[in-house]
């Protein structure tokens, strides 16, 4: 009886993990939702110290949109914002 209960719990956890992974992969698969950061609004050098993380298309988390713009200007890369929040 206890073995059956453990198997049932493990099966439920596996299903929940699979659903979470599927939702996570769909967040990154939809390239049409990527947005271009508005770098013209930031006067560089220097960025505000506000913490509002964004996930870049290079799969790096930036503390805010301004620091992402600094990375774009330094490296010349075309990095988009995948979503607000960490990667």
From TrEMBL:
<dbReference type="InterPro" id="IPR002350">
    <property type="entry name" value="Kazal_dom"/>
</dbReference>
<keyword id="KW-0732">Signal</keyword>
<keyword id="KW-0722">Serine protease inhibitor</keyword>
<keyword id="KW-0964">Secreted</keyword>
<dbReference type="GO" id="GO:0004867">
    <property type="term" value="F:serine-type endopeptidase inhibitor activity"/>
</dbReference>
<dbReference type="InterPro" id="IPR042167">
    <property type="entry name" value="SPINK2"/>
</dbReference>
<feature type="signal peptide">
    <location>
        <begin position="1"/>
        <end position="19"/>
    </location>
</feature>
<comment type="function">
    <text>In the male reproductive tract, binds to sperm heads where it modulates sperm capacitance by inhibiting calcium uptake and nitrogen oxide (NO) production.</text>
</comment>
<dbReference type="GO" id="GO:0007286">
    <property type="term" value="P:spermatid development"/>
</dbReference>
<comment type="function">
    <text>Serine protease inhibitor which exhibits anti-trypsin activity. In the pancreas, protects against trypsin-catalyzed premature activation of zymogens.</text>
</comment>
<dbReference type="GO" id="GO:0005576">
    <property type="term" value="C:extracellular region"/>
</dbReference>
<protein>
    <recommendedName>
        <fullName>Serine protease inhibitor Kazal-type 1</fullName>
    </recommendedName>
</protein>
<dbReference type="InterPro" id="IPR036058">
    <property type="entry name" value="Kazal_dom_sf"/>
</dbReference>
<dbReference type="Pfam" id="PF00050">
    <property type="entry name" value="Kazal_1"/>
</dbReference>
<keyword id="KW-1015">Disulfide bond</keyword>
<keyword id="KW-0646">Protease inhibitor</keyword>
<feature type="domain" description="Kazal-like">
    <location>
        <begin position="33"/>
        <end position="87"/>
    </location>
</feature>
């Amino acid at each position: 009886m206890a073995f059956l209960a453990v198997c049932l719990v493990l099966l439920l956890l596996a299903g929940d993990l699979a659903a979470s992974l599927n939702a996570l992969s769909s967040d990154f698969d939809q390239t049409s939702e990527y947005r271009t950061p508005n770098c013209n609004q930031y006067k560089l050098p220097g960025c505000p110290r506000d913490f509002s993380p964004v996930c870049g298309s290079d799969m790096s988390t930036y503390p805010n949109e301004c620091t992402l713009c600094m990375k774009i200007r330094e490296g010349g890369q075309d990095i988009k914002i995948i979503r607000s929040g960490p990667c």
